[in-house]
Each structure stands twice: as structure tokens, then as C-alpha cells.
Structure to design on (977 residues):
């Protein structure tokens, strides 16, 4: 069959997904005394309510699992920060976790005078310029903060969320929004809403100066993030008037140094009004009972009149602007254009064009630049905001290529677009792939809640019908319209952001103030919280898997088949799972990369990519260290076609010498760039500490061995991959008998599998003394990880480990977070975890982490060491952590192909049943004494490896010897090349 005949299949796909053009119209409904609006044919079945006080309530019912995604969205972000107090919306987001006059405090009447004095002192501090006087004022703030903390209860909000069973507690601020997020069990919705209503009633800005320091840390982390610097510079050039470019979300250093609690309160009073907020819930809900509860609990809110941000229109960009950014990471660049307002036809065109240029398979950048390896990598995307969008082309240069040459290659693809030098089928294929993504995505509560939240932020949800219809409207766009628009839009009106490798001489670090640790009173509970915790809820019974009933087992020739039938839609996901990987064959990952550039006798690599995109199917060859998976997904009606194409490619791909030489050059460039990435360096340090000089991270071919790779070896591995033992996994609509019959024909196998080469083994180091592993990197902060090999996996400890992680190092209510960040203000990000391996014959690993300013590093290390040696007791936190661990199992529903992966994971750990059964049983009798004994036996007073990435210009490495024998590792030692 000719490749072009696959075009016929995507017409079938569009017919299946769209059923012609769907009509989305607003309608009004009424139930239980409440009126709501909805859109016909909405797959999310979302209802939009407006309460009497103006609060928008957006509800979407999905009763497949007993949990609910919650978001409280406020239409206020850095756009609405006062020019004199940038970063204010973000400060406020942090403070909305601190409680009210009813929770977060033991005695608000006694606490309030101290808070009033602190607020007044910050106003004086803001207006004082003399350095010595400012230090004296800050000493007073620090002293009063300590006294106020004798009455406060740190992170009591998080305690209530633990009691309720929320497994996601978070918030974010951006240019147009501040959003508070939770994921709760549906049996606790009543008490949950009581907490949320109280949270926004009268927030108290307590424990401020340590939280302020956490924001300083966040700012300094941004100074170490070259990508963030590029993005901010790009926005500043694209938007010389609009606050998109003129105010960053985290704010200026000058404003951060001079916070005003008075201005933060004014901001809260102005923008946190019900007529500017939306309460969004998606999941296991009942519309009628839930809207009554929300209406009752939030009735106290009063609407306010205020002026939202009304920007002056930006003048058209008429020149090319070039912006240079410097930093230690690898070179790359943006070419960015200013787009249009949300839900406009022009924005829809740009969204489509972004996929025509880059969709991961068949776009112009994918085919002409990535597939031909003209650059290291390239892509495009369209970011939509309320007033404008941003269209971004990005690329990373390959070896020997300048940023200017890379830019010209990006722009050459724009010229092809303007000439109409692309296949019109790309438009229809993009629609088909988008429809498929929607079909999968709208089954997810997070996706539903995010989509409606964005609609509220951008247009108060009034254009939800347009959001739903956008893909159908995209299908109406013709190639000629795209070409005409491209010629009008893509002119000399763009911004080029060039990221150079070099020292950023403009960095001004936020300086460390003198802070005395505040009390957290972790074992105290306010009457409000006590009442919330005590409120009874109807228990949710856990649902464990029965692998004999929940899975279907079969055979396809000599291969085992494991299936979960999809009874909901026509989506399939299939995999060939090989129990071998790079530990068996070092060349296998390179063969997998090579495959993307290969064709067969009949079709080129480009034609194959287009064919898969046209039928909205995806394949991937993923090589891990011990497991290799060939995966394929799409619609069942295209299963035979997609599988045949994949089988033909694996069996008949032919060598391409130029592609291999280009690939080897790209691999060497990627290796070079990895040495410029602080995250990669830290990961390498960890592996070095865990295994020694010969470790999984640096188990790499040398650069010369990369250069010596030949095509014949890689092709041989690809052609013979199916000859190795593998299991076929399938999630799809076909029954096991039909699937096994079909796949046996499509995936023919021999009479016996070829044995794989023995797996390379790595020997764990014995953590018998303290050691420090240090790598130098030009950065403001210091990244510190503690690592200790902790013995072989023991299933009897699973419950203790889960509870320990919950209590000690996970979440805002954990011991580590409360001490390191909340009390001592030593970090923005910190955690500790007792990590279990994926196989029974591997060791557990204790990991702790602090990312902090370099000048706080010693204090941070001391602080974490104290916690590792002595486990603080908090009866209340222990009880909440235990309930949270139990609740996490009770509400979890493992479905779809996750059942297969859970079965395979349990099998590797030696279980023939759902391991959560044992964990749930063993959690119930655990006491704090059990946890303390576990801590003393496994963590306390043990030697550790300290893995540190920092600038040796900002850290005195000689001082590190007090923590253990110092090993300064070169990048060659870490990376193995």
C-alpha cells in the first residue's frame, strides 16, 4: 500500500472523532433551586454557576474515582502588581497558607499586637535608606517575629489538608492569575469547603520574615536559571508597554528587599473579591448537593467594585530586536513574535501554524531541521495569554554552528511556510491529533479543571463554547488562508534572544538577612482545626487489584500477552516490553536514536513520520537501563495500519551513513551541553557517591567509541530486536482472543527467543564514613544532597517507609519543611525521602536535599544533619501523617493500562498480588515508637555522602572537610567522557 493512502485513514479518524462539525451552544439549566449555564455537546459536562455575591462556581462531574480536583482561581497576578511593589501578588500567594484569626494561631488576641508592630516596622524599613538603620530595624523585626511565633502554629493549613486526605497542596502565581490547588477525597468535601471558606475570610499575614526569605531564595534560583532569564528578556522586548514585559511575577530585587504588608493587605482587599474569583471542582461530585454547600459556605463574601488591569494597546513592532543573555548553560536561542488576544481567529491560526511547523513528527521543523539534523534540536509553540499571545521558535545549535546560523535555519522554515511549501494534509492531520488528545485529556480531572480555570482567567468562562469549538474551527482553515496570514504576520517584527555561554555580569544576588529561627509549635492545634479534624466522614473502602481478575493473559506465538480491555472508547496503547536495556547492550540506546532517521526500501524517514502523524498514531522505542519498550498508541481503527508500519520499519530499516555521522555529532554535542547543566552534574555526583567511580551514570561509551559506531551494528540490533524475549501489553477495545489472533499475524515470531547478553552489574559502595563530593559550577545558589545506601529492599518495611516519608520529609507539613524553610528560612526547596528500589535485589537509598544560597550552606547542612540524627516528636503530625497515608491508599484507583504496569512492578519486587494490600494492613498498627525505632535504626547518626554543586568562588571548599573527606570531582570523572 502506498504511504499516501494513509491520508484516507485520517479522514476516517476525523469522522469518528468529530462526527462532522459539532455544535456548541450556550444553554441555561436549573436544578435544586440554582440556575447554571452549560454548553451543548461539552464532553466535560461543565456547569457554570454565578452566586448572588458574584462568585463563579465551575463544576464538572466525573465519578470514576473517589477524588476531586479543586482550584480557587483569582483574576490577579503580576499584571496587577503596583509598579512600586512588584512581586506582591506572589508574596500574597505564599501568605494565604498562613491561616486566619481562627487557625494558624494558639491565641490571636495575644499574637495580633506583635503582628501590628511588625507591619509598622516594615513600613519604616521601606522608607529608610541608611544601611545601619535598616539593619537595626530588621533586628527589631526579627526579635518581634520570634515573640509572635510563640503564639502561631506553622503550616496548620497543611495539617488540615492531611487530615482531609488531600494529596496535592499547591499554588501558583503568573501574569494574570493566582490559583490555589488541592486534590481531595470526595468523602471529605464538606469539611474541605469549610476550611477553604475560612481561609479566604480574614487571612492573617504571620510568620512573614521567614517566608520572605523563602521568596528571596526563589528569586536567587531564578538568577541561576538561564531559561527563565531568556523568557523574561523576551517578554520585555515584545511588550515595552504591557505588564507582560514590564513586571515579572517574582518582582524586582529592590521591591523584594522592601516589602510592605500594608500594600499586600490592600491588594488582597481589592482583588480577592467573589466577583473576581472562581471556585472550580472536577471529579466525584453531585452537582446539586455541592452547589448548595458552596453557596452556603461562601455566602459571607461581599462583591467589590474595582478596576481591572486595562493596558494601553501595544504599538506594532516594526524592527528586529536582538537581546543577549549570558550564563553557564549551553547556547540556544528564541525567535519570538507578539501574537493576539485569546479566542481570536488570528490566535487560532498561530496555534495551527505552531503545529504545522513543529508537532514532533511531521512539521516543517521536525522534517527539515530535526530529521535532517541541521540543528541539535528545534521546535515552536504558541503561548496564549489574555491580551496577547507569544509565538516562539526555539533552537539549539549543533557542533560548530553559530547562533546566527541557527537563527537563519529557523527563519528559512518560516519562509517555506510563507511560500506554501507544505502539504495541506498537515492541517487535517493536526486536527485529528488534537481531537485525539482531547478525547484522552478530558477523561482527566486535572485537565478539565485546568481548561475551565484558564477560560475563567481569560474571559470569565463566557467563551467556553469557543474553547470547545476551536478544533472544529481549525478544521475549516485552508492552506491558502495559512499562507496569506503567514505573509502578513511573519515580517521583520520579531525578537531574537541569544543565549551565550559566559558569565552574567549583571546578576545581583538578594543578600541574606540575619534571621533567628522562629517557633513552629508543630504539636499545637487550634480549636478550629481540632473541630475540622473531628468532623466524621463516611469512609472510602480501598479497592485493591486482583491480578487474576483484572488482567487477561494470553499468548501471541512464543510471547506472553497481558491485556486490560478498554470499554470506554476506541483508544489503544500497546507495548513490546523487553527485559533488557543499556546494561545488556551499550549500543542499544544509540540504535533507538538512529531509528528516528531511518527509512525502508519503500519509504523515507520523512514519509514514515508523516504517515504516523496523518493517522494520529505514535510510536516510540525507549531504552532504559534494564527494560526496553516499543510502544504504539492511537485509535483502534488504525491499529493494523500503525502496527504494520512499525513492524516494517523495525524489520526493514536500512542504514543511512550521513544520518549516522550527523547523529554522532549531535550526541557529542549533547554530551558537551550536559556538562553545562547543574542538574545533570548533581545527578552524576549522586551516582558516583552511590556506586563509586564505576557507576550507572558514567557507564558511557567514550567519545572515540561514539565516533567509531558503525551503522551495521545498529541496524543489526533493530532488525533483531523482536527476536529477544518480550511481553506484549495491550490496553484497547479488542477482547484478548481477538487481539492475540491479530497481533500474532502482525508481529510474527520464531520458535524460540534469542538469549540476551548478561546484564552489567554495579556494586554499591558501603557508606561507612562521611564523604563530600563537590563539583564547581558558576551559580548563585548551592545544591546539596545527602545520600546513603541503606541495605536491600525489605517488603516488611514498606508501610514504615511510606509513613516515615509522609511525616519526615514530604509536603509543607513535614518535619523537614517546617524546620528548614518555615522556622529557619534556610531554603526555598527542601525534602528528605527513604527511597525504595524497583527490584528486590537492589538497595534502598536515603536522600535529603536543600537548595540554598551559597552563604547559607553551612547553616543548611547543620540544620538537616540535626533532623537526620534526631527525629522531632509531634503526636498530632504523626496521627495526621498516618491518616494521610491510609487515605492515599483508600482513594487510589489503579485503572486502564496502569493495572499492567502495577502488576509488572509488583512482580519485580517479588509480589504475586497487589502489594498495597500488605502495606495498608501494616500501616494500621504503627505507632510513633515504630517510626522512631525505624529512624534510629536506619537514619540517625549514620555516615552520609554529601553531594554539593556550587561555585568555588562563593563556597570555601576547605571548610567542607569538617563534614567528611573531600572529593573534588572533575566533569570527566562525573560523566565518564
Amino acid at each position: 500500500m502506498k504511504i499516501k493512502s494513509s491520508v484516507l485513514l485520517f479522514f476516517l479518524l476525523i469522522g469518528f472523532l468529530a462526527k462532522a462539525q459539532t455544535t456548541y451552544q450556550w444553554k441555561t439549566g436549573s436544578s435544586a433551586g440554582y440556575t447554571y449555564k452549560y454548553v451543548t455537546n461539552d464532553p466535560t459536562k461543565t456547569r457554570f454557576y454565578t452566586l448572588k455575591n458574584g462568585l463563579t462556581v465551575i463544576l464538572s462531574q466525573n465519578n470514576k474515582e473517589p477524588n476531586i480536583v479543586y482550584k480557587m482561581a483569582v483574576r490577579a497576578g503580576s499584571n496587577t502588581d503596583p509598579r512600586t511593589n512588584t512581586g506582591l501578588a506572589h508574596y500574597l500567594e505564599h501568605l494565604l497558607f498562613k491561616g486566619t484569626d481562627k487557625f494558624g494561631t494558639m491565641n490571636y488576641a495575644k499574637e495580633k499586637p506583635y503582628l501590628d508592630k511588625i507591619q509598622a516596622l516594615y513600613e519604616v524599613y521601606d522608607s529608610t535608606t541608611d544601611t545601619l538603620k535598616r539593619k537595626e530595624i530588621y533586628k527589631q523585626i526579627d526579635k518581634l517575629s520570634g515573640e509572635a511565633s510563640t503564639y502561631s502554629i506553622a503550616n496548620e493549613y497543611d495539617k488540615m489538608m492531611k487530615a482531609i486526605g488531600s494529596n496535592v497542596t499547591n499554588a501558583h502565581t503568573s501574569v494574570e492569575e493566582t490559583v490555589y490547588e488541592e486534590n481531595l477525597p470526595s468523602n471529605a468535601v464538606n469539611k474541605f469547603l469549610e476550611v477553604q471558606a475560612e481561609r479566604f475570610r480574614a487571612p492573617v499575614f504571620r510568620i512573614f520574615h521567614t517566608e520572605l526569605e523563602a521568596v528571596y531564595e526563589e528569586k536567587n534560583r531564578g538568577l541561576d536559571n538561564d531559561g527563565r532569564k531568556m523568557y523574561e528578556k523576551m517578554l520585555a522586548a515584545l511588550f515595552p508597554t504591557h505588564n507582560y514585559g514590564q513586571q515579572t511575577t517574582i518582582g524586582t530585587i529592590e521591591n523584594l528587599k522592601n516589602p510592605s504588608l500594608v500594600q499586600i493587605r490592600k491588594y488582597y482587599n481589592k482583588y480577592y473579591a467573589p466577583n473576581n474569583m472562581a471556585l472550580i471542582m472536577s471529579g466525584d461530585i453531585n452537582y446539586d448537593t455541592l452547589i448548595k454547600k458552596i453557596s452556603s459556605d461562601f455566602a459571607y463574601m461581599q462583591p467589590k467594585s474595582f478596576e481591572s488591569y486595562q493596558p494601553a494597546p501595544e504599538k506594532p513592532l516594526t524592527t528586529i530586536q536582538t537581546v543577549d543573555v549570558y550564563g553557564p548553560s549551553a547556547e540556544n536561542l528564541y525567535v519570538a513574535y507578539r501574537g493576539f488576544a485569546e479566542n481570536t481567529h488570528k490566535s487560532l491560526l498561530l496555534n495551527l501554524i505552531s503545529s504545522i511547523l513543529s508537532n514532533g513528527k511531521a512539521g516543517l521543523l521536525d522534517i527539515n531541521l530535526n530529521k535532517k539534523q541541521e540543528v541539535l534540536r528545534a521546535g515552536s509553540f504558541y503561548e496564549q495569554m489574555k491580551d496577547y499571545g507569544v509565538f516562539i521558535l526555539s533552537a539549539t545549535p549543533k557542533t560548530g554552528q553559530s547562533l546566527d546560523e541557527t537563527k537563519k535555519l529557523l527563519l528559512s522554515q518560516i519562509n517555506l511556510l510563507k511560500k506554501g511549501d507544505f502539504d495541506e494534509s498537515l492541517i487535517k492531520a493536526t486536527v485529528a491529533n488534537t481531537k485525539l488528545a482531547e478525547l484522552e485529556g478530558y477523561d482527566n480531572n486535572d485537565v478539565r479543571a485546568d481548561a475551565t480555570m484558564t477560560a475563567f482567567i481569560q474571559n470569565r468562562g463566557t467563551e467556553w463554547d469557543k474553547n470547545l469549538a476551536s478544533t472544529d474551527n481549525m478544521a475549516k482553515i485552508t492552506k491558502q488562508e495559512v499562507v496569506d496570514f503567514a505573509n502578513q504576520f511573519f515580517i521583520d517584527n520579531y525578537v531574537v534572544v541569544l543565549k551565550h555561554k559566559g558569565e552574567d555580569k549583571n546578576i545581583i544576588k538578594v543578600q541574606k538577612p540575619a534571621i533567628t529561627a522562629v517557633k513552629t509549635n508543630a504539636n499545637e492545634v487550634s480549636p478550629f482545626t481540632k473541630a475540622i479534624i473531628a468532623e466524621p466522614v463516611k469512609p472510602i473502602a480501598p479497592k485493591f487489584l486482583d491480578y487474576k481478575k483484572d488482567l487477561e493473559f494470553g499468548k501471541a506465538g512464543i510471547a506472553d500477552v497481558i491485556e486490560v480491555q478498554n470499554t470506554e472508547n476506541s483508544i489503544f496503547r500497546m507495548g513490546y516490553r523487553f527485559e533488557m536495556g543499556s546494561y545488556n547492550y551499550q549500543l542499544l540506546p544509540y540504535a533507538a536514536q538512529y531509528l528516528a532517521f531511518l527509512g525502508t526500501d519503500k519509504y523515507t524517514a520523512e514519509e514514515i513520520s508523516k504517515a504516523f502523524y496523518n493517522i494520529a498514531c505514535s510510536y516510540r522505542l525507549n531504552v532504559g537501563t534494564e527494560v526496553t519498550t516499543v510502544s504504539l498508541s492511537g485509535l483502534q481503527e488504525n491499529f493494523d495500519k500503525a502496527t504494520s508500519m512499525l513492524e516494517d520499519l523495525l524489520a526493514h530499516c536500512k542504514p543511512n551513513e550521513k544520518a549516522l555521522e550527523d547523529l554522532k555529532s549531535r550526541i557529542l554535542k549533547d554530551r558537551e551541553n550536559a556538562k553545562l547543566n547543574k542538574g545533570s552534574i548533581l545527578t552524576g555526583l549522586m551516582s558516583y557517591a552511590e556506586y563509586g567511580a564505576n557507576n550507572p551514570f558514567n557507564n558511557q561509551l567514550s567519545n572515540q567509541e561514539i565516533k567509531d559506531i558503525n551503522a551495521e551494528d545498529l541496524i543489526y540490533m533493530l532488525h533483531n530486536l523482536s527476536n529477544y524475549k518480550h511481553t506484549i501489553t495491550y490496553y484497547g477495545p479488542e477482547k484478548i482472543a481477538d487481539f492475540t489472533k491479530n497481533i500474532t499475524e502482525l508481529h510474527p515470531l520464531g520458535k524460540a527467543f534469542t538469549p540476551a547478553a548478561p546484564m552489567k552489574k554495579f556494586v554499591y559502595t558501603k557508606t561507612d564514613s562521611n564523604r563530600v563530593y563537590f563539583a564547581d559550577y558558576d551559580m548563585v545558589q548551592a545544591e546539596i544532597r545527602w545520600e546513603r545506601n541503606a541495605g536491600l529492599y525489605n517488603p516488611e518495611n514498606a508501610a514504615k517507609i511510606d509513613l516515615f516519608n509522609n511525616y519526615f520529609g514530604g509536603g509543607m507539613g513535614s518535619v523537614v519543611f517546617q524546620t528548614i524553610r518555615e522556622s529557619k528560612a534556610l531554603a526555598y526547596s527542601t525534602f528528605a525521602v527513604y527511597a525504595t528500589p524497583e527490584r528486590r535485589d537492589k538497595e534502598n537509598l536515603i536522600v535529603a536535599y536543600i537548595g540554598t544560597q551559597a552563604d547559607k550552606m553551612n547553616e543548611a547542612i547543620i540544620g538537616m544533619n540535626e533532623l537526620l540524627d534526631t527525629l522531632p516528636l509531634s503526636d498530632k503530625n504523626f496521627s495526621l501523617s498516618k491518616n494521610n497515608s491510609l487515605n492515599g491508599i483508600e482513594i487510589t484507583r489503579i485503572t486502564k493500562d496502569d493495572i499492567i504496569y502495577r502488576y509488572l512492578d509488583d512482580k519485580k519486587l517479588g509480589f504475586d498480588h497487589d502489594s498495597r494490600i500488605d502495606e495498608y494492613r501494616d500501616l494500621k498498627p504503627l505507632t510513633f515508637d515504630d517510626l522512631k525505632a525505624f529512624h534510629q535504626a536506619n537514619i540517625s547518626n549514620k555516615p552520609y555522602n554529601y553531594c554539593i554543586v556550587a561555585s568555588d568562588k562563593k563556597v570555601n571548599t576547605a571548610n567542607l572537610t569538617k563534614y567528611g573527606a573531600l572529593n573534588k570531582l572533575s566533569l570527566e570523572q562525573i560523566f565518564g567522557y
